[in-house]
Design a protein that fits this description.
Length: 359
């Protein structure tokens, strides 16, 4: 009876801890693992406890849950060296950027059918500035000796958002603008008490014209282009360049245009526009002042820095880039090299080629 009880106890132990297989000719030991074989003076480790030694850490186990989508923060983004802006507003959904980067356009149906949606979008897109630039080119006949650009957008956005002076305005009384026709005019006027932006959006939505568009323009105010151009031309003359010099101030990301969808197809729209014209609404501007007044006016305060300070910082990088006959942008890297390596100072006379190439 005691022998039978012992046998039953052994079977229960085997069921709980796994069968014990001693080493022998018929049971060769495999790779060494904790508790894989009995050793003299060492107790047998049960299989369940053995599995605990090999349990992978939590981070290596396979993922069974659905990962949470990456959350994109709302509002302005911060990038080192760039103005603090909500850069997503330069490429909103259902808009396309033109090849010259001057405008974004959309034919989303809801924007031509819902005045509140259109006005809300315009207010949002007016919170980011255009990208003003300086373009300096030197040519001789068909040959371009240099063509350099500088970005002036950072001069419109102060570090402290409370110092911003940008605002949105609608066309005023007796101001010439596209008010729903093919040509600019001073009519129609809004009624007394009407919200300018919403009222113009409602007129656009209700306009029965087959082809119509609504445009918001971003503009720069109170930047003295004439003073900057004079400084640039004097600088180019100082390195004895004899070719034709052109200085311009192009602005990209300057327009937002909403157009009603094509009624039939693009060809039909083009033909209709050719014969019946296009109803244009260009009555809203997002104004980004460089300063609160024009250069020379009393009490003038610049958003970031005045034209003279900017010129003193960029004069040497511009001079060096032109002397190297560059075709492209002048950036902070050029300014850093001028500060650290004195580039742009003591530049020898530049060999611009034979005199006959000027004609």
């Amino acid at each position: 009876m005691d022998q039978q009880s012992g046998i039953i106890a052994d079977k229960v132990a085997q069921a709980n801890f796994g069968a014990y297989r001693p080493e022998g000719p018929d049971n060769e030991a495999g790779p060494s693992t904790p508790g894989s074989a009995a050793s003299p003076g060492v107790d047998h480790v049960p299989e369940k406890e053995e599995q605990q030694f090999h349990r992978p850490p939590p981070y290596s186990s396979p993922s069974t849950g659905v990962p949470e989508p990456r959350r994109i923060p709302n509002g302005p983004q911060r990038y080192p060296g760039l103005p603090v802006l909500d850069y997503r507003q330069y490429s909103p959904p259902m808009f396309d950027l033109t090849a010259d980067s001057t405008a974004i356009t959309s034919k989303a149906p809801y924007l031509s059918e819902n005045a509140n949606a259109l006005s809300s979008l315009i207010r949002t897109l007016a919170t980011v500035p255009p990208k003003p630039q300086v373009l300096i080119q030197g040519t001789r006949g068909r040959k371009t000796d240099f063509s350099v650009r500088l970005n002036l957008m950072s001069l419109l956005v102060p570090e402290d958002p409370r110092d911003r002076l940008d605002y949105m305005r609608c066309v005023g009384r007796d101001e010439l603008a596209y008010r729903g026709g093919n040509e600019p005019g001073i009519e129609p006027e809004l009624g007394a008490g009407e919200d300018g932006l919403v009222a113009w959006c409602e007129r656009f939505v209700k306009d029965p014209a087959t082809v119509k568009s609504f445009t918001m323009e971003r503009v720069v105010a109170n930047l003295d282009h004439g003073w900057l151009e004079g400084q640039i031309r004097s600088l180019v003359a100082s390195i004895e360049y004899k070719g034709a010099v052109a200085v311009s101030f192009p602005v990209t990301h300057a327009r937002v245009t909403v157009q009603n969808p094509d009624k039939v197809n693009k060809f039909f729209t083009s033909v209709t526009k050719l014969f019946s014209g296009k109803a244009k609404y260009e009555v809203v501007k997002s104004v980004w002042p460089f300063a609160n007044a024009r250069n020379g006016e009393q009490g003038r305060k610049c958003i970031v820095q005045n034209e003279k300070t900017w010129w003193e910082e960029w004069r040497d990088p511009i001079k060096y880039a032109i002397s190297q006959k560059r075709q492209g942008w002048i950036t902070n890297e050029d300014k850093l090299e001028c500060i650290m390596e004195s580039k742009g100072k003591g530049i020898p006379l530049v060999d611009w080629g034979p005199v006959e190439e000027y004609y």
